[in-house]
Model the fold of this input.
Amino acid sequence: MSGAGGMPGAGGMPGAGGMPGAGGMSGAGGMDSRWQHGGMRSDDLRAVEWAGAAIRLIDQRLLPVRLAYLNIDDVDALVEAVRGLAVRGAPALGAVGALGVVVAMRQGRRQGWSADRLAVEIDKVRRARPTAVNLAWGVDRVLPLVAGGTPAGQDAVLSAALELIAEDEAGNHEIGRLGADWILARVSRRPVRVLTHCNAGFLATCGWGTALGVVRELHARGALEVVYADETRPLLQGSRLTAWELAADAIPHFVQADAAAASTIVGGLVDVAIIGADRVAANGDIANKVGSLGVALACQDAGIPFVVAAPESTLDPATATGADIQVELRDGEEVLCVGGVRVAPEGSRGFNPAFDVTPARLVTALVTQARVLEVSAGQLP
Ligand code: MRU
Done:
């Protein structure tokens, strides 16, 4: 188990939960001033990596104040990092699932676990968060290679996890190209004005991003005017993470309150909304960060496309409809506080569903690395 030496201080940390416990984590870097001075592009960074003997994560709870890393080499610390949103976003969680099996196997060999104990620990990783299908998908993809936890099994699982990571990043570039092609064929205004919700950028994936991959591609083609980034209460993935990514790549953007999204869309300031997804049901219903449904309803009213960008790994044919998707209910304190400061009276309770489900009839297009499905027109995954 690694020590906790070198962890960055918590000063300025946004209200995304407390600091992780020290078990199994070590800080691997402090503030990176190059970021603040614009010397680094988001394409240089990875949210999830294998660091030789541990999983290496950008600690997303600290952004944008501080760019710091966690090295994690035990299961409980990894589960805590996932639940506390040090790492988040469906495709990034797929990588965590696959690499999490390596972490469990290595810990099992250090601590002499039985095969049954190893299976229990891997299952903890698989169940750390319920809504994004990619977490379980990442575990399940490498599970057949475990081979009782042998060194050969460990090597095979690690290779498969690294392959999954490379595939996700390559797939995101393809999502970007397909999504940009579809939008430029469908939207007549130039340059295009985009709204996005939450963070579906490199931080939420193994690189480049899904919804932000499309935004980056539009920008690279000289076809993007501006992005309206919803701040995404309660944990501010939009203002803390999406805006941080856009600023790094010098992509013009506004951060707006979630409550502004409907009037921005209906008022004609936006040509297309592009979001990511945490799970796509067989009937085309889509779970994504809470607030996505309101964006979709406003797009329908305004007659503009509502586009969902996600890898094929987020499609879940085993879930029949959105009603069957388990929406994570998080601690009400996250809603009652801003930046760690309580803003609601003592005695108020917080209601904190982390996701909502947008029905297929509101999803104009679902863009994966393989295809574009016009879901509301009846093309189902
Ligand atoms: O709770 P999070 O931050 O893990 O939720 C992630 C999202 O809902 C993202 O918006 C995203 O679209 C899905 S992952 C690319």
